[in-house]
């Protein structure tokens, strides 16, 4: 088969690899029909995720067809159309039993494209298949369903739920890339009074308004001042960091009102400052998190009911063998105006 293989910082190539096979009784092998590229994949290429070893096949999102299963797989059979989740918990450890699949201590969690070969390939092996796969109806378009591998569960769980968004809240979303846009859609489900989005790109700010932002502001135009103006100087109830840089994290902390919540979603590759001398008496809450994907079944149901704007996030389409071109397009998002790029057979 062919797969996108990580070679080292700044280098990946579409090349021949042996076909994956069942290695454990809980494995499934899936033929990849549709996959996509995540901002985390770019962080890996940038060297921000050093535990990814050269030689690893990248990718952790896909829709495909099961072609083989181990003897212990109970819920899936060859021929099933499935969503490959970015998280595949073991289902048995204390973390998994508590619904914290991303923190699995039994050999699962985020493994695809991280510690084992991933989904940017013609076939992939999915460990812990009963917990890492979800059935997808034939009628559901694959390019929409694939966004429930990672981006929408992350936005819903790590953004909206961790931020405890409530009716009437003012929410600032910092970053209008794919994950930030999904956060906008996710927080809208909780009836905030207003959702404000900041980014440095006008195309992404237009996309933010299309998926439900009430106000947008360019990053260099003092987002904190806009938040203050719209809240009588109190600040945001919730700030969601969806970029992964020190400056964006520090902005989120600075705009919170007393009792506010900062939900960090972005993948960070360097330290950020925390102004504790200003925050210690303001009763703020800061959360971080790797998605657990406990919400995926609910989100699949919402997708089937047309309650998630998944299609609006897809801007570019490629064939699987155009993987390197797709990475170049996604990596130059400012020039290409790319949001989510989808690759299909």
TrEMBL record:
Keyword Oxidoreductase set for record: yes
InterPro entries assigned: ADH-like_C, ADH-like_N, ADH_Zn_CS, ER, GroES-like_sf, NAD(P)-bd_dom_sf
PROSITE patterns on file: ADH_ZINC
Span of domain Enoyl reductase (ER): 8-343
Keywords: Metal-binding, Oxidoreductase, Zinc
Cofactor(s) of this protein: Zn(2+)
Coiled coil start-end: none
Entry similarity comment: Belongs to the zinc-containing alcohol dehydrogenase family.
Descriptive protein name: Alcohol dehydrogenase catalytic domain-containing protein
